[in-house]
Design goal:
It catalyses: myo-inositol + NAD(+) = scyllo-inosose + NADH + H(+). Homotetramer. Residues 8-128 form the Gfo/Idh/MocA-like oxidoreductase N-terminal domain. There is one protein chain. By secondary structure, this protein is of the alpha/beta class. The chain folds into two domains: 7-130 and 281-303, NAD(P)-binding Rossmann-like Domain (Rossmann fold), CATH 3.40.50; 133-278 and 311-338, Dihydrodipicolinate Reductase, domain 2 (2-Layer Sandwich). Helices cover 36% and strands 23% of the residues. The strands form three sheets. Strands 12-11-7-10-9-8-15 form a seven-stranded mixed β-sheet, with helices on one face. The protein has a six-stranded parallel β-sheet with strand order 3-2-1-4-5-6, with helices on both faces. It is globular. 43% of the residues are buried. It binds 1,4-dihydronicotinamide adenine dinucleotide and (2R,3S,4s,5R,6S)-2,3,4,5,6-pentahydroxycyclohexanone. (2R,3S,4s,5R,6S)-2,3,4,5,6-pentahydroxycyclohexanone binds next to helix 7.
Amino acid sequence: MPPQRELGVAVVGTGKMGADHVRRIEHVISGARVTAVVDIEAERVKSLAAGIEGCTAYTEPAAAMAADDVDAVLIASPGPAHETALLEALGRDLPVLCEKPLTPDAASALRVLEAEQRLGHRRIQVGFMRRYDAEYLRLKRLLGTGELGRTLMLHHRHRNLSMPPWFTNEMLINDSVVHEMDVTRWLLDQEITAVTVLKPAASTLAPEGMDDPQLVLFETESGAVVDVEIFGHCGYGYQVHAEAVCERGTARIGDEPGPRVSSEGRWGGRITPDYIERFEDAYDRQVQAWVDTTRRGEVAGPGVWDGYAAASVCEAGVLAQREGRRVEVELIERPALYR
Ligand SMILES: NC(=O)C1=CN([C@@H]2O[C@H](COP(=O)(O)OP(=O)(O)OC[C@H]3O[C@@H](n4cnc5c(N)ncnc54)[C@H](O)[C@@H]3O)[C@@H](O)[C@H]2O)C=CC1
Ligand SMILES: O=C1[C@@H](O)[C@H](O)[C@@H](O)[C@H](O)[C@H]1O
């Protein structure tokens, strides 16, 4: 594709995230337009396409990817539908931004990794958008300077106001904690080697049978220990914190994303209701970066190896959660394409 041409993007899956990415591509970022929208819900996708000039509605990802005006694909269907769409895009050598998780389990992630390897070059970026969040980027830069010495521990807190009714215990690990798996690997630049899950008494705000909150522990290659509080139904807002405990100091992010207001004898701030608002800038930067690199014919950001590694940690995490024991993470040797 000539670099000056706007990138024609097919958005696959037009629910909460997909519709937000359509808005972002059409109204927030530059260099791309939505030329196709795809959803198994025919009426929804038809009415979405009707509001976008030059955009066609499809109910089959493959049909959209075959269209002449589609240069790249943004996948925002549910995790279990990602593998089919990813393999179709790789078969056509199309650049992809795939919402997390790459796929929901290690075996399917490995199939995608093998398909990209057969292609011989990277085509897929995974939507681990926290790597584009200003606060996480500052923390990454600080740890990279070496000023604080080695990182010994990370404390993560990941609280959601509530979860959709179909959310399961396993999804707390492979849909929510998958973000902490990725940022831990990225911040420490190493793999997670084992997972343990502890279950405190469940909150009465959580649905019957859901162990919520949970405390998920990672061990890493260098011997760092990482804890993640995942709370799906905290009932008061959406909060994501991270603190690095290093040899010569600590660094913490996520405490005060907004202004601290003092008024009428009280001080305080607003807590964002959900990830769409908390990570709005990160999603914008992520999609802009993907469009820019794609138009230059390059691939950057978290890729298939990161998606596969996270899926393997998820698999260990779900087993640890189910069986109440420490589970080691199994990874294949990292192929040359991802070094
Ligand atoms: N990066 C982040 O912070 C977030 C990422 N996500 C990820 O985004 C993806 C979508 O999540 P949501 O938008 O919350 O889900 P959603 O349920 O709101 O939307 C999914 C859409 O995909 C459609 N769909 C289902 N199967 C399909 C198929 N085979 N082909 C095309 N469309 C299909 C559904 O009809 C629905 O419209 C998931 O991978 C999820 O993990 C979700 C929330 C936040
Ligand atoms: O990816 C996301 C959701 O799918 C997940 O359900 C939430 O817990 C996360 O905070 C959000 O970023």
